Amino acid sequence: MSTVLIVCAVSAVLMVFTYTLGMYLESAGSEEGPDGTGEGFTVVFVVPCLNEERVIGATLRRLIAMSPPDGLILVVDDGSDDGTADVVNGFADPRIRLLRREPPAARRGKGQAINHAMRHLRGRPDADRTLVCLMDADGRLDEPSLALVRSYFSDPDVGAVQIGVRIGNREQSVLARLQDMEFVVYTQVFQRTRSLIGSAGLGGNGQVMRLSALLDLGDDPWSQSLTEDLDLGVRLVLAGWRTECVPRATVHQQGLLSLRGLVRQRSRWFQGHMQALRLVPSVVGRSTGRVATDLLNVLLSPLLIFVGSFMTLSLVASLVGVTFSAVAREQLFQPLPIASWYVLTFGAAFLLGPLYARATGEMRWAGGLVYGHLFIVYNLVWLVAAWRALWRAVIGRRGWLKTERLTDREAETPVGSA
């Protein structure tokens, strides 16, 4: 039995490593995208809020500075019971419109709040040249990003573009830095390669959609899923639109400073990912080739995480058993078994760590290698989040596990500093 577990564990690790290596090599040769400013597009910002008085003011000031005189910024207050609405109403700028949602309609998920904003955009004269930029309340968009994004929509087949995400307070703690590394690696390796396929993933912060593409999905483009962004991206691709990522464009958001908060957030993401399994039949029936393979890989990844958790438990059980067997200890603690374990466990660190150092320019190669090893350990949080998400699904909990915000003063590194 132990031999079977070892073979399964090694096979699973090699499959993941081979897939990551393939994406890494393909992304290294990918182009950054079209040049030009993408003139002629109108950008509408949509900011869904639920108790965001700590951060919404700074976000709106940034968006006002980036919006043209005839721009539009829709703030959807989804039943906040703090001072969010007061902060928004404190802005006299005519470009800002506050859309209030009250119970019982409010607090039914982020997707429903965004759909409420969509009702104010229907009937615009040129939906094909209107872009909807979705921002989280703590999002800080870098100045050149909009020009870079608009150029992608010169291709009429592009329905959505995802901006690269960075953690603004990444220098505040090792945990925040590792979250930043997670987003950078995801963008530089997986998103760049998925852009070549036309099926890049969409994230809640900094996703830009063509209004006509959203209208193709019906009256309520966003679903009630806990990861409505993942759901939307898959359905846009199935509707015939390309989705791409712009690594050179950047939106900053707050990183979590507590492990408990991180597990809560990732549990919500994982639970939403499990909800997205309902899209698998549509992917099988309506897509082919690399697009189908890519979407299925994304949608079925929760199953791999559950398998990985069993492999991790079997490894721990084996190590415990070794402590009671002198013969097993003698066989295990030899150079070859130790070297094999190290390569299988931390081999990816030699790819991802230096990649992060090179992509950000914020540390040397050696520092990137150290963080690469920490990153492997950091990803164990997904195992905990997976089982917590499964438990929530079993007992029928589908409520929003909202992330607590810090004020910019509480974050030592200003969120959104370039």
Q: Any descriptors?
A:
418 residues, alpha/beta, Spore Coat Polysaccharide Biosynthesis Protein SpsA, Chain A, eight-stranded mixed sheet, 8 strands, 13% strand, disordered C terminus
Outline the structure in words.
- An eight-stranded mixed β-sheet has the order 3-2-1-4-7-6-8-5, with helices on both faces.
- The protein is globular and about 75 Å long.
- The chain has a single domain (1-418), classed as Spore Coat Polysaccharide Biosynthesis Protein SpsA, Chain A (Alpha-Beta Complex).
- The chain has helices at residues 2-28, 56-66, 84-89, 110-118, 145-152, 174-197, 211-215, 228-238, 259-275, 280-286, 289-322, 326-332, 335-346, 349-360, 365-378, 381-394; strands spanning 42-49, 72-78, 96-101, 130-134, 140-141, 158-167, 207-210, 242-253.
- Helix 2 (56-66) links the parallel strand 1 and strand 2.
- The protein is of the alpha/beta class and 418 residues long.
- The longest helix is centred in the last third of the chain and has 34 residues, at 289-322.
- The protein is built from 16 helices and eight strands.
